[in-house]
């Protein structure tokens, strides 16, 4: 039996990277007769089958009345909703056998860690997807939470296989294991494909007037919205006419609040800025089509799906050139800047705002890139799961 931990994709109807890729992994793997999708239930300290609501979230059939926040309390409250239904427990510590496999599509450092540590004494195979090491480097992460992530790192070091989402995240994991004196885990990098399970649309030149800049990312300090907003404010003050569209859920309250205050301040000044906490996939496609180009301001990433999404739509990207964003964006269709410097953002945006030909050319370069599909991804992933 293959037990597929889909907790990250079935708890909240978020449309950020991990929930979306978890749902696609379930689509790829979950229909096999020997696969059982499971969810970690923190209030019962065990895995369970999926409730009706969790299944609907996993299959992307839930439209929330209010966009959820990607933080601990909403996650815990969502877990509480399952308590009256009491989905059947899946007691892996008692039933896990030599020919069984547990796949963790993501690992939130909750009380699952203790359970998984004890499960290492059982036979069977353990595989985990590793997204990034940001919590171990982000100064905004409190010490207790960082220690939880270190505990997760120690756990991964004992897994049979770790699938990193990029070569950067693979190197980060190996470096962290060495720095903490852990066993070297078996890590293979399998980069994500474009997140859309649809045919690529034909190229359309960016024609929106006024020009529109799009940034897709949750509101978190490491995502660097404030540097982008400072760059845009400088360009507006120079007299340039353009709109800025931001799409992404709220995250930790203090960090998101600081970004929202700046968005509202600029809006009160009459600047053309809009923020959507969450949109449907159709609306996301429309936002990319309406954009003249996109930015990806993040300072640290494990991958950077919005970069590929922008290329898929034929929209050029301004982003950092280091780490995972540099790995994903290297090649035509991208312009690299030091994302910590608003003046570099502004310098990169000026010619694209001023010259429609340059903007269209960057978009055509982006569209010319060959992009991996989910079929390509499965071609790389399937042998790892079977070996």
Task: Summarize the structure in words.
There is one protein chain. With 387 residues, the chain is an alpha/beta fold. Helix content is 43%, strand content 16%. The chain has helices at residues 7-10, 17-29, 52-58, 72-80, 92-95, 112-119, 143-157, 167-179, 225-237, 253-268, 281-290, 305-312, 323-329, 342-354, 356-367, 374-386; strands at 2-5, 35-41, 46-48, 89-90, 101-104, 125-130, 161-164, 187-189, 211-216, 242-247, 273-276, 293-296, 317-320, 334-337. The strands form 2 sheets. Strands 4-3-2-1-5-6-7-8 form an 8-stranded mixed β-sheet. Strands 11-10-9-12-13-14 form a 6-stranded parallel β-sheet, with helices on both faces. Helix 9 (225-237) runs parallel beside helix 10. The longest helix has 16 residues, at 253-268. The two termini are 15 Å apart. The mean pLDDT is 92.
Entry summary:
This protein is α/β, with parallel strands linked by helices. It has helices spanning 7-10, 17-29, 52-58, 72-80, 92-95, 112-119, 143-157, 167-179, 225-237, 253-268, 281-290, 305-312, 323-329, 342-354, 356-367, 374-386, and strands at residues 2-5, 35-41, 46-48, 89-90, 101-104, 125-130, 161-164, 187-189, 211-216, 242-247, 273-276, 293-296, 317-320, 334-337. It folds into 2 domains: 2-193 and 374-386, Rossmann fold (3-Layer(aba) Sandwich), CATH 3.40.50.2000; 211-367, 3-Layer(aba) Sandwich (Rossmann fold).
């Amino acid at each position: 039996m293959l037990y597929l931990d889909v907790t990250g994709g079935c708890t909240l109807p978020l449309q950020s990277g991990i929930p979306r890729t978890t749902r696609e992994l379930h689509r790829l793997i979950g229909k096999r007769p020997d696969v059982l999708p499971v969810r970690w239930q923190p209030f019962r300290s065990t895995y369970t089958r999926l409730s009706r609501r969790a299944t609907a979230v996993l299959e992307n059939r839930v439209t929330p009345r209010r966009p959820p926040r990607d933080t601990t309390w909403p996650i815990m409250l969502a877990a509480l909703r399952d308590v009256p239904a009491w989905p059947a427990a899946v007691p892996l510590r008692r039933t896990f056998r030599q020919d069984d496999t547990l796949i963790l599509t993501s690992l939130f450092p909750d009380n699952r860690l203790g359970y998984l540590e004890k499960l290492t004494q059982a036979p069977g195979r353990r595989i985990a997807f590793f997204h990034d090491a940001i919590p171990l480097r982000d100064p905004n992460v409190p010490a207790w939470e960082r220690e939880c992530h270190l505990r997760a790192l120690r756990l991964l070091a004992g897994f049979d296989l770790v699938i990193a989402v990029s070569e950067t995240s693979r190197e980060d994991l190996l470096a962290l294991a060495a720095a903490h004196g852990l066993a070297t885990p078996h890590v293979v990098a399998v980069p994500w494909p474009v997140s859309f399970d649809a045919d690529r649309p034909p190229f359309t030149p960016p024609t929106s007037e006024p020009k529109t800049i799009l940034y897709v990312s949750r509101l978190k300090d490491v995502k660097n919205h404030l540097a982008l907003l400072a760059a845009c404010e400088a360009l507006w003050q120079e007299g340039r006419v353009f709109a800025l569209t931001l799409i992404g859920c709220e995250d930790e309250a203090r960090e998101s609040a600081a970004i929202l205050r700046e968005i509202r301040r600029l809006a009160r000044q009459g600047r053309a800025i809009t923020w959507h906490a969450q949109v449907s996939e159709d609306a996301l496609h429309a936002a990319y089509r309406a954009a003249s180009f996109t930015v990806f301001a993040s300072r640290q990433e494990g991958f950077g799906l919005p970069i590929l999404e922008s290329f898929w739509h034929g929209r050029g990207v301004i982003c950092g050139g280091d780490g995972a964003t540099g790995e994903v964006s290297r090649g035509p269709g991208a312009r690299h800047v030091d994302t910590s410097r608003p003046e570099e953002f502004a310098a990169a945006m000026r010619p694209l705002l001023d010259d429609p030909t340059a903007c269209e050319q960057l978009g055509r370069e982006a569209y010319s890139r060959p992009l991996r599909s989910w079929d390509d991804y499965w071609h790389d992933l399937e042998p790892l799961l079977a070996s």
